[in-house]
């Protein structure tokens, strides 16, 4: 965990609230759809047959001669699973693996924030053999270190689709950290199933600075997941590439948000701690501008 020490210090104190009330019966920090006897008073309601007599406000009964019960908003946990894309395109650029490093850091940072809030947290990622490794959400001490070991043990060199993993995840909050250069359509369809089921989905779209601004020289660009797809980039083709890549990113953002997911694009030049804050606290005063790592 020493490799992530500075990151964990930087995200200490960040809170990751649920996007809507949750239904978990386990007490936690998020607003619950259930209303019960917590200290967070909401309103009074006339006593009805079958209500728990212990919830009657006896002082109000003495003043009004009518029996009222106190309603309160309970708090609940939000089990969270972070799905990390370990396909070959995440190893770009080859010399720095900047997308992969940033994706790893964001995964660890979000796991630490969820754990600090008292939420069970886990991770799903393909290991170096191409098998999907799923660590179920847990609250126990040391779970963030376990997640870090699983993430560090993965290697972005596979071609395995990410969408099938989503079908086996039942967490109330699911986060997908990916560059969307694989099975993007299938991934969105799988995410919609979770959203329709009342679950919360976040899409963290990792983009390399070099993808936004390729070197200003003639170069042969190839798809890391399909080397047969190649394209020569020169000044005359760069304009078309820039436009198409921008349009594609805008379309991805539109489609995921239209499906009900929270979508955040992270460029590799942004510090991981800043990105984690933008994901966890989108309504806060955190600037949306990129910060140099």
Please state the structural category. alpha/beta
Tally of individual domains: 2
Shape: elongated
Oligomeric state: single chain
Output the helix-strand order.
HEHEEHEEHHEHEHEEHEH
CATH architecture of the largest domain: 3-Layer(aba) Sandwich
Number of strands: 10
Beta-strand content: 25-35%
Point out poorly predicted stretches: 24-41, 284-293
Largest sheet: 6 strands, mixed
Output the strand order for the largest sheet.
5-4-3-6-7-10
CATH H-level superfamily of the largest domain: von Willebrand factor, type A domain
Radius of gyration: 23 Å
Amount of helix: 25-40%
Mean pLDDT: 82
Helix run count:
9
Q: Briefly, what CATH class of the largest domain? A: Alpha Beta
Structure explained in plain terms:
By secondary structure, the protein is α/β, with parallel strands linked by helices. It has two domains: 2-15 and 78-280, von Willebrand factor, type A domain (Rossmann fold, 3-Layer(aba) Sandwich), CATH 3.40.50; 30-76, no CATH class. 33% of the residues lie in helices and 26% in strands. The protein has nine helices and ten strands. The protein has helices at residues 5-10, 58-64, 98-116, 143-152, 163-167, 184-196, 209-212, 235-258, 272-280, and strands at residues 30-46, 68-76, 80-84, 121-126, 132-138, 173-178, 200-207, 219-223, 226-233, 262-267. The strands form three sheets. The protein has a six-stranded mixed sheet, with helices on both faces. The radius of gyration is 23 Å and the shape is elongated. Mean pLDDT is 82; it is low at 24-41 and 284-293.
